[in-house]
Amino acid sequence: xxxxxxxxxxxxxxxxxxxxxxxxxxxxxxxxxxxxxxxxxxxxxxxxxxxxxxxxxxxxxxxxxxxxxxxxxxxxxxxxxxxxxxxxxxxxxxxxxxxxxxxxxxxxxxxxxxxxxxxxxx
Length: 122
Hints:
The chain has 122 residues and is α+β, with helices and mostly antiparallel strands. It has helices at residues 2-5, 22-35, 52-63, 76-82, 101-106, 108-118; strands spanning 40-44, 68-72, 86-89, 94-97.
């Protein structure tokens, strides 16, 4: 069932790990994590190597995940879909806000704070 959620069907679910593509390996590992019922997931660029259909299935699974998901990503749509809290580590301090990614990026007060945190001292 978990493999099915990550778009493996029929014979595909019986493949040996050594013959899986990069995207299939990621989908298999994500299925394993869901099966273990973890309450915290730490993901580094989780949508790399996934096609659009796999990313959509993964996003839908994460929206229903009851635990905490900590992730890094360059995928704007993934961040906007999954994140409800943004924690940014700057050279001077941490900025921590309960906002969607788009709201965080467009907030004027946060933009001003970021400029101060990244400013090079004269």
